[in-house]
Amino acid sequence: MPKLFGTNILGILLGALAMWLFGSLWYGGIMNEAWLEVNNMTKEMAEAKLQETGMAKSLIGGFLLSLLSTIGLSYVLQQSGASLLATCAKICAIIAALVVLPIMGYSVLHEGYPVKGLMIDFTYVFIGFILAGAVMSFFRGKDAIDPT
């Protein structure tokens, strides 16, 4: 199977799927009530908004965003030469913490988004990136960098 940035395309797709499924679990179950509260929404309001957007558009759009993130992570993993599970997961966690978190922080600083909402959203990204990196590590070949 062809590779993109040193990762088998199946690995990228499965990494994106892992991130997307975790997002469904995170926002649809684990943090659903807290996320609704932070955004001053009821379940009925959220369902109406989803109805307005369309379930298919929401699901497909969410997967495409996960896929784009995973492709970007694959590029960084290729540039770093990482292929071991722990190394790939660590690099993806660092990207989340040092790139994504500061960008997400602008919504708190300039738009008044609650810090609790940032924590909910960032935790999803952090864990989702680690999952994607871990999955992709199995599709990056046998050459590995030293994890130390």
Explain the overall architecture:
The protein is mainly α and 148 residues long. The protein has one domain (3-137). It contains six helices and two strands, in the order ββαααααα. The protein has helices at 9-30, 32-38, 43-53, 55-80, 85-111, 115-137, and strands at 3-4, 7-8. It has a two-stranded antiparallel sheet. A hairpin with a 2-residue loop joins strand 1 and strand 2 (7-8). The model is unreliable at 144-148 (pLDDT under 50).
Short description:
With 148 residues, the chain is mostly helical. The chain contains 6 helices and 2 strands; from the N terminus they run ββαααααα.
Task: Furnish the topology, listing elements before pairings.
Elements: E1 3-4, E2 7-8, H1 9-30, H2 32-38, H3 43-53, H4 55-80, H5 85-111, H6 115-137
Antiparallel strand pairs: 1-2
Helix pairs in contact: 1-4, 1-6, 4-6, 5-6
Brief descriptors of the model:
globular, single chain, 3% strand, two-stranded antiparallel sheet, 148 residues, 2 strands, disordered C terminus, 78% helix, mainly alpha
- Helical region count? 6
Question: Low-confidence parts, pLDDT < 50 over ≥5 residues?
Answer: 144-148
Could you say how many structural domains there are in total?
1
Largest pleated sheet: 2 strands, antiparallel
User: What average pLDDT do the residues reach?
Assistant: 92
What's the arrangement of strands in the largest beta sheet?
A: 1-2
Q: How large is the share of residues in beta strands?
A: under 5%
